Automatic annotation (TrEMBL):
Classification via Pfam families: FAD_binding_3, Rng_hyd_C
UniProt key word Oxidoreductase: yes
Organism of origin: Kribbella capetownensis
Entries under InterPro entries matching the protein: FAD-bd, FAD/NAD-bd_sf, RIFMO-like
Name of the protein: Rifampin monooxygenase
Source species, domain of life: Bacteria
Keywords assigned by UniProt, alphabetized: FAD, Flavoprotein, Monooxygenase, Oxidoreductase
MF annotations from Gene Ontology: FAD binding; oxidoreductase activity, acting on paired donors, with incorporation or reduction of molecular oxygen, NAD(P)H as one donor, and incorporation of one atom of oxygen
Cofactor(s) demanded: FAD
Sequence ranges assigned to domain FAD-binding in this UniProt record: 2-335
Amino acid sequence: MIDVIVAGGGPVGMMLAAELRLHDVDVVVLEKALEPTKIVRSLGLHARSIEVMDQRGLLERFLELGTKYPLGGFAGIYKPAPERLDTAHGYLLGIPQAITDRLLTERAAELGADIRLGAELVGLSQDDDGVTVDLADGTQLRSRYLAGCDGGRSTVRKLLGVGFPGDPSRVDTLLGEVEVTAPPEEVTAVGTEVRKNQLRFGAMHVEGTLFRFVVPGAPVVSEDRADAPTLEEFKQQLRLTAGSDFGAHSPSWLSRFGDGTRLAESYRSGRVLLAGDAAHVHPPIGGQGLNLGVQDAFNLGWKLAAEIDGWAPEGLLDSYELERRPVAAGVLENSRAQMELLSTEPGPQALRRLLGELMDFEEVNRYLIEKNTAIAIRYDFGEGHELLGRRLRDVELKRGRLYELMHEGRGLLLDQTGRLSVAGWADRVDHVVDVSEELDVPTALLRPDGHVAWIGEDQEDLDAHLPRWFGAAAG
């Protein structure tokens, strides 16, 4: 029997597969497509996702192929980021999703995930011992758990019958890469002028005569819009918005997205779990979608591995939904708010001007940036130190950097006293005796995802908290 089947070979599925393989979990990834998509739905990684890649030793791969941009802004209202953000990675990493997909697929394959292209899940059933998956070719697979990472139209979610309530889409936005006959400088100049009044429009020069456009679409008449726009539809919306279609032709790809927001009623049904767009959809404004999904996988991976390895404490796997569903609900709210602020109607424009004034206050600006980049997330671990429940930023130690010590996906006790021990949990938790001038607590216990689970300096208190996240001590 397979340990975990992951349905969906996008960035969320591959991130989850890689996290599971760190713990020697047997993983099969089912991806119905035969080759990677050319569609670019995401253009960058925010600070928290950059930290995630750093925690697993992947960041250099991304930095080599990406471009750093300064942080700042909300709903297209640009304000320079405040100083001293709580991260060592205070920038946006511009990198097309196709490259992110490739790097995470390579990572999962390196770690030994079994990746099967052209394998479409069409049915599932589960019992107390596992999940049976039906494939389109008539074959079946059996696993202990199934993770649905198969997008906003998730087959897994639909087969489970999990509700997906929310607000329906009202407007479309079209995306595409097309060749143009107009001079590139003319396209860029017109795009700059159009964006003064229509912030949902964008014209990005890729190379030569190739441009990537973002264009407001027509009002939505039905939510069932799985088909990509035609070239003629794309050109028509270009003409309506920019006054020209720039001689657009020979599209590399065309796509559309709506502004609907939906959140799964549950992230888990028995032995089946949902992650990424299978659990939540929202407008892409703010660039949070891929980041949110990758962070779902980062939260789920070590917990599911612990369950399979047999040391997970009661309720650990359920904490995935308890922690991540409220985060998604917050992203739905702020992305919907940002979408409203892009409207050309007088009311939203008045609100936009007011918010621009408020963002001149440093704490307002900081709050919005930390929300968009996910570095402000604090899970509810109960009362305690202000760091409890937050992820700990990468701090400098005498021996190097904290995140360099987290590549194996284990828990970590950062002990500045040298007096404590993780005896009984050493197979799950690394004990690092070191000091950091950036950290003013004696000792911090970190989960494999970097969130602070305990702070203190008393051995009995530590021994009482270790089982909550790392199960019973080894015999």
